[in-house]
């Protein structure tokens, strides 16, 4: 598993606002699920060494079979590194019987001031081979678009 997927977007909000949305339970539930999904955080511990467990449910399960069940993806995420206003590093493990989804994927959310906004670059490394690259990158881009909609009015 040496594949890397990435996406980036400039968001019209300061780094402090964006960073806050990365570490707030209700915020994550609102913006992290990509289009066609909703999310629920079951466990929350926002500190280095902590993490969260999220259940992502497909709104149209027939079109998008899940990794954990027909309609869901369950992922346990650990916070490996938190650098305020700059970076959030997550280690994600999917609950799945299919070995093509096994392993730990690292998601790095890098924030950089860009004028009055923030350039957010998400890099996923060690992506499990069962995750289609184009679909994954579209999902990351969708989450970034949701993040932009969520925070742009809050800055």
UniProtKB/TrEMBL annotation:
Every Activator of Hsp90 ATPase homologue 1/2-like C-terminal domain range: 12-152
TM stretches of this protein: none
InterPro entries given in the database record: ASHA1/2-like_C, START-like_dom_sf
Record family assignment: Belongs to the AHA1 family.
Protein name as it appears in the record: SRPBCC family protein
Source organism per UniProt: Rhodococcus tibetensis
């Amino acid at each position: 598993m040496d594949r890397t997927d990435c996406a980036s977007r400039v968001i019209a909000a300061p780094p402090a606002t964006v960073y806050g949305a990365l570490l707030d339970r209700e915020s994550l539930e609102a913006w992290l699920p990509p289009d066609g999904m909703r999310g629920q955080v079951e466990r929350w511990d926002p500190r280095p060494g902590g993490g969260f467990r999220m259940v992502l449910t497909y709104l149209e399960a027939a079109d998008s079979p899940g990794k954990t069940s027909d309609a869901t993806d369950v992922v346990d995420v650990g916070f490996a590194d938190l650098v305020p206003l700059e970076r959030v590093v997550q280690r994600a493990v999917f609950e799945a019987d299919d070995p093509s989804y096994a392993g730990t994927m690292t998601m790095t959310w890098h924030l950089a001031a860009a004028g009055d906004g923030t350039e957010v670059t998400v890099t996923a490394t060690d992506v499990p081979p069962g995750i289609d690259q184009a679909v994954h990158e579209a999902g990351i881009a969708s989450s970034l678009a949701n993040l932009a909609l969520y925070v742009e009015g809050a800055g």
